[in-house]
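Entry:
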Amino acid sequence: MLELSIFDLSLLLTCALMAGLVDSIIGGGGMIQVPALFAVLPSFPPATLLSINKLASSVGTIGAAIQYSRANKSPWGLVIISSTVAFFASVAGAYLVTQLPTQWLRSALPFLLIALLIFNIKSNAGLIHAPKHQHRKQKAIASTGAGIIGFYDGFLGPGAGAFYKLFYTRVLGFDFLRSAAPAKFMNIASNLGALCVFFFLGYFDWKLGILMAIANLVGGQIGTGIAIKRGNAFIRKGFFILVTILIFKTFYDAFLK
């Protein structure tokens, strides 16, 4: 395992727990987990740290997805198709990120998030469950969105979980609670796709990854229980807060760092 002091390990596990809690409610737990890994282990290859984050996030998200799917019936046909597309798109994105610079995408991301935030605030998206499309069209649209976001998750990744949820609420007409399980399963698929590439290239540390995965899972179970209890309005407010933070963070990363 990577050489860590008790303090550093405790810090990483605490951040993983908080990331799982935040991610299970509104998405974006990687905003906590990734900076923590890079701060504690600055000398290690970025791909190794990203792969640890992906494993921890995947395990925590699986736990949250199962809990959400028990609370609300999931459209499994839609989930399976879109998750498969997200997986392969993420594989392509993760491979491409080893070949191309990502600065152009980092520069565009905060402006894209601002547009999406304004677009979503102007509607009641996520409060009412009113699917907009019939089954075949719904699957085609969901697969397209899963492909785009999955590729982004493999290629860069910050806020991908929030993008999945935004896509389901704004484009497909789901409410926040019913979009939670499909969005989580797509996020799991794109995390696993990127992980396959990192594993193949030899970037990983199993022991630290498993410890952080357990902490992330615990946080995810706590957060999911809170979200199911508090409902759509609570999740919507948290979602807007998260996207606003993402805007500031991505702007800082792209132009000020």
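The chain is about 80% helix and 0% strand.
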